[in-house]
Amino acid sequence: MNHPGTSLLEEAIRSERDAGRLAPYGLAVIKSEGTFSWVNAAGARLLGRAVDLLVGTPSPFPASETSSASDTGLFEYDSERIAAWEDSQGRLRDLAFRVHSLTKGEGVVAAFRDVTDERHRQRRVAAIARSAAKLASQGSLAATLDALAEEVLQTDAVAAVQILTIDPGSQTLRIMGSAGFGHWPDFFDRLVECQERGASLVMIEALHGAEPIVVSDRWSAIRTDPAWEPLHQYLGELRWESFASVPLIIRGRVGGVLNVFFSPGQTVAGTTLDFLVAMADQAAVAVDYVALLQRERDVVRREERQRLARDLHDSIVQQVFSISMQAKSLEILGQRNSSVAAAPVRRIADEVGLLSQTVLADLRAMVHELRPVSATELGGLEEAVRALVDSTTNRTGMRFSIVAGQGLDSIDSSMADDAYRIVAEAVHNVVKHADASKVVIRLAVRKAMLRGTVTDDGCGLPPDAGKGSGYGLQTMRERAEQWGGNLTVGAGRSTGTVVKFTLPITGQAPTANRRRMS
Questions:
Q1: 511 or 158: whose pLDDT is higher?
Q2: CA-to-CA distance for 352 and 369, rounded, in angstroms?
Q3: What pTM does this model have?
Q4: Residues ≥6 apart with Cβ < 8 Å to 397
Q5: CA distances from 58 to 52, 75, 137, 252 (A)
Q6: pLDDT, tens digit, for every residue of 330-370?
């Protein structure tokens, strides 16, 4: 069906295109009720459907020249507006358009072009810039990689993203960032089961080859493969088709992998793959930064132990030497044949007593600062916490109450060590900042979670607390997040502060209890 003026519009567009002033435009006449009544050949190609299949169907363009972007759910793009359109292949396209009203209220003529690739490029550049900024602003590796995964998810037609890293000690994989899929605590257990059934893991090939791998129709192959049955439900939660796995290269070695699950109809090549490599590089920088920071902290710990050794020599050794000299004085007094006056004996005894108390206080402080290498060395998490409480009580006089539930002795030793160090850091903060008289520590295992709280009756949180800027708070949160858990710091019910943490016992452990996948 032809409308008056459409042939003239086509001729004007063709003339502009032939002159090299614009890309091929589609033309369409939209009835007042919002359906196509005519589409030119270029428009049909852009819309991905035959003309006769478009006529009479709803249009993505507004039926009125005066419709605003907010009225139609559209948004502005420079001086044009953008409409979303799904072609016959199920691919979402971004169409930039302008509309002009026809006479006698017959609807509008829409001139439109496909800007999908252009907008993808712009979003990718913006995503790379935002992710680089997040490297400097996020407080922990898990938070940073979650943010990077979200950037990838929002940029292209992506269903889900996973960022996995390799633990340097155990050489096991763990999920450190994700977006799209839900959280399944036993994901890795199921993945290992799939591998043992004979399933081929593309990400392992990418890790070994240190090169990106793209597999089209990956979901079609997985959902019909019995070896993948343990993860069929998980992978079937979202609508996806192709899969890409891009290794994270850190100082010349592979330190992890970026997995991307693409929505149906997407071609994964060229600029798309370049963008994924750029985001994988960002993730690699984040992982490398955290590793460097950890090494720096290890150096700080060694230097702190050396300082304590110097203090031990310069302070306690000297005090013990003074005690021995006073004891020698008593020995000399005792060897006299005549009676000894009470005054010098009392003076020496007082000095020995004072020196002994000073030595004892200094030793307790140093033992507390050194802390045990592992909670298991003191008989498990509960015993380690009780030893910490006894030491702190002797040193400060602060009152403690410990409420320990069942199942603490069955916790993985690495998790117990991290939980102990979270509690120890919280107690240290109370002693240093809270001006508290009592602390209550609760530890329990409930619903496959290790839960802990440290509550004090002190002066409460300072105005800038909870921002994660302090080294102690950041370290505590990192210890919780590496197990897939979380940590919060808040005000008590009436006074004081409450530190709460939860660690999923079935979550992805960062060390030896994860089986190596190779």
A1: 158
A2: 26
A3: 0.45
A4: none
A5: 13, 19, 45, 53
A6: 777 777 767 777 777 788 787 877 778 777 766 766 665 55
Q: Over the Cα atoms of the chain, what is R_g? A: 34
CATH for the 378-518 domain, from 3.30.565.10, 3.30.460.10, 1.10.490.10, 3.40.50.970: 3.30.565.10
Q: Which residues contact 370 (CB under 8 A, 6 or more apart)?
A: 305, 308
**Angle, in degrees to the nearest 10, between helices 116-137 and 141-155:** 170
- Domain spanning 120-295, CATH architecture: 2-Layer Sandwich (3.30)
DSSP summary character for residue 49: S
Please tell me the predicted confidence (pLDDT) of residue 401: 92
DSSP 119-131: HHHHHHHHHHHHH
Pairing of strands 36-39, 92-101: unpaired
- Tell me which CATH homologous superfamily contains domain 6-114: PAS domain (3.30.450.20)
Domains 6-114 and 120-295 share a fold: yes
The conformational region for residue 137 under phi > 0 = left, psi -120 to 50 = alpha, else beta, is alpha
8-22 pLDDT tens trace: 555 554 554 454 444
499/452 Cα distance (integer angstroms): 8
Structural domain spans, the chain: 6-114, 120-295, 378-518
Which tokens go with 244?
């890409």
The H-or-E segment that residue 113 falls in is strand 108-114
Q: Are 359 and 382 in contact (CB under 8 A)?
A: no
Whole-angstrom distance, CA of residue 399 vs CA of residue 390: 10
pLDDT tens-digit readout, 448-499:
889 999 999 988 876 655 544 455 688 888 889 888 899 999 888 778 899 9
- CA quadruple 413, 417, 422, 428: dihedral positive or negative? positive
Label each residue of 196-256 as H, E or C: HCCCCCHHHHHHHHCCCEEECCHHHHHHCCHHHHHHHHHHCCCCCCEEEEEEEEECCEEEE
CA 156, CA 166: separation in Å to the nearest integer? Answer: 26
Contact 257, 248 (CB under 8 A): yes
Going from the C-alpha of 211 to that of each of 16, 142, 191, 246, 411, the distances in angstroms are 45, 24, 22, 7, 38
